[in-house]
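Fold it.
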Amino acid sequence: MVKARSIPMNPPHRIAPSLLSADFARLGEEVRAIEAASADWVHFDVMDNHYVPALTVGPLVCRALRPHTRLPIDVHLMVRPVDALIVEFAEAGANSISFHPEASDHVDRSLQLIRDRGCWAGLAFNPATPLHWLDHQMHRLDLILLMSVNPGFGGQRFLGSTLAKLAQVRARIDAHQRNDGGAIVLQVDGGIRVDNIAEVARAGADCFVAGSSVFGEPDTDGGYRGVIGRMRAALSRGFVEPA
């Protein structure tokens, strides 16, 4: 198991397949398969049917999957309230935990709760959520997650307006680091595919959550290893491939 606070900041780009699009009847196999396919993180979407209109999985499933992979487990909480689940997911083996600021009664306290349990702490932003939540929290963050779809369901198309928001957050991160702040990963989630991942990277993202574009890949086209390899190739070439 990867120690939570020692997740490496490199490589410069990370691909984090989202289990939301995996086969839930064989999640252990799916996690082992994406690790074998050279994924960097496992993205674990938690929805409560209150904050978002869907219900997924909880800390018991995270605990059950932890022995199946050495990859960091990246938990995205789409729930309200957040503090009790922060504790449960940290104990279940999560390495990073992100939550939506409007879902917490006290953002500063929730971030510190994550860090006190040895996990990376992150804030997640819906497409319409303003960035002012970052004004006083950068020093507590290891990760910022921008949703490029409205959360709740997989398979949605990437919202082009996210590119400008990514650039704004990248500018904030760069300014924070120029002032001797710590490194912060900029993650994007929603509609990431081979044909847009390079454009999203150019806007400032360095971690890419991909669900249906990975788990929906047919075996005849190289499977998970094939699509992850094509994403890495697009990133290395630095331009958008044709669909």
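The mean pLDDT is 91.
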